[in-house]
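Exercise 3.2. Students should predict the tertiary structure of the chain below and write it as structure tokens, then compare their answer with the key that follows.

Predict this chain's 3D structure.
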Amino acid sequence: MSTASPLLARIQQASKDALRSGDAATRRSLSALEAAAKARGKDAVDPGTKEAAPREPTDADVVAAIRDQIKKARETAENFAALAAKAEAAGGADEAASRGAAAAQARAEVALLEGFLPKAPGADDIAAALDDILAAIPGAGMKQMGEVMAKLGERFGSGLDRAVAAPVVKARLSGGK
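Answer key:
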């Protein structure tokens, strides 16, 4: 099956490589990621009609799926680490070791998935882009935040982490530098 997303194609190839090398943990993580990305395309909605419009997943869909999977893996790692500490405090060395190993496996999954994220723009890149964007919008204020975020998204594509960019944009639009 060919895919419209080069990023998804990279993930599929890495999954095949993991299968060939016998790396079950990597294969499991990448298979779950691939399924999540495909689900985003399958569940797509046409913004104009608000009706279902299934399609091949885009790179933006894949990046969103990666970020979701990273968030879940981080939460899992934190939960297992807390359970390991609790078990160790209660004197359960075997249980603590088991929970610690599960936490380490979840952290390894985070590292694996982060390797597929596009390079995110740095603070200097965002600041420079904001200078250009705000120069084109005279008197920009908080009411234009959506417009400014959309223009940043156009400039940086799927590499832009909106959760990182939004506070920077908000600070600039509310008068901070």
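Discussion points: Helices lie at 6-21, 24-42, 59-89, 93-114, 123-135, 145-156, 162-173. The chain has a mean pLDDT of 88.
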